[in-house]
Amino acid sequence: MTRVLVVDDEPQIVRALVINLRARKYEVDAAQDGRTALELAAARHPDVVLLDLGLPDMDGTEVIRGLRGWTKVPIIVLSARHTSDEKVEALDVGADDYVTKPFGMDELLARLRAAVRRAAPAGPDGDAAVVATASFSVDLAAKRVRKGDTDVRLTPTEWHLLEVLVRNSGRLVSQKQLLQEVWGPAYGTESNYLRVYMAQLRRKLEADPAHPVHFVTEPGMGYRFEP
After folding, report:
1. pLDDT tens for residues 155-205?
2. Which of 41, 62, 70, 162 has the most other CB atoms within 10 Å of its CB?
3. Is residue 123 classed exposed, middle or buried when 0-12, 13-18 and 19+ CB atoms within 10 A define those classes?
């Protein structure tokens, strides 16, 4: 069974999450502050963490940093904070996804399932697997992209950007992370680079570049690749 750690200081939200998760056969632990959350994570080794940022004893970003010191467990932030800067900070310190309160239970459960799938151990072929969409396929090992029966020519920068997004399939990747991974540590704020290259990828790979379904923009935060 998948074990979920719920971290929130609002009893109503904790109760709703525990009831809904247990009804779907998840094992659930709950914490109302950051210290208890870190202790439970170390003792119980959850498969995914649902984390509120506004905790009574410490900020949720400190909990993320504490977890990232020893585990890669998926962390989905649940928060009433709406500003892009706060969302980006949570992603940059190690969160995997961000859901704004109030949220729909169906959406949250879908995000949770996706996070668990991404965290599952790779098969024996690992990165050799081909990621296929309705419009194109990406062979990470061969560094090859095909649209129908035709190879798509990408520049090295376009390929690197595509590779980072595909390897984080379904996960929101912050602008800062993309810039630093593709262009280097000194590039953390040049969001115009991303706009230009994302437009090029969409033009080459999306069925309708004006209405992308695979390269999704999360305004002010980053981008998400949806297979």
Report:
1. 888 998 999 999 888 888 888 888 888 887 777 677 888 899 999 999 999
2. 162
3. exposed
User: For the chain, which residues make up each domain, given as ranges?
Assistant: 3-119, 126-225
Domain covering 3-119 in this structure, CATH number: 3.40.50.2300
Angle between the N-to-C axes of helices 84-92 and 175-182, in degrees from 0 to 180, rounded to the nearest 10: 50
Cα-based angle 189, 193, 195 (whole degrees, multiple of 5): 105
- The model carries a pTM of 0.65
Instruction: Select the more confidently predicted residue: 124 or 168.
Output: 168
Decide if 128 contacts 140 (C-beta within 8 A).
yes
212 Cβ partners below 8 Å, 6+ apart? 202, 206
pLDDT higher than 80, residue 213: yes
Residue 149 — pLDDT band, cuts 50, 70, 90? confident
- 190-195's contacts with Cβ under 8 Å and 24+ in sequence apart are 194/161, 194/223
Q: Any idea which residue has 């080794």 for tokens?
A: 45
Q: Is 210 exposed, middle or buried (0-12, 13-18, 19+ CB in 10 A)?
A: exposed
CATH topology of domain 126-225: Arc Repressor Mutant, subunit A (1.10.10)
Contact 7, 24 (CB under 8 A): no
Tens-place pLDDT, residues 34-64: 999 999 999 999 999 999 999 999 999 999 9
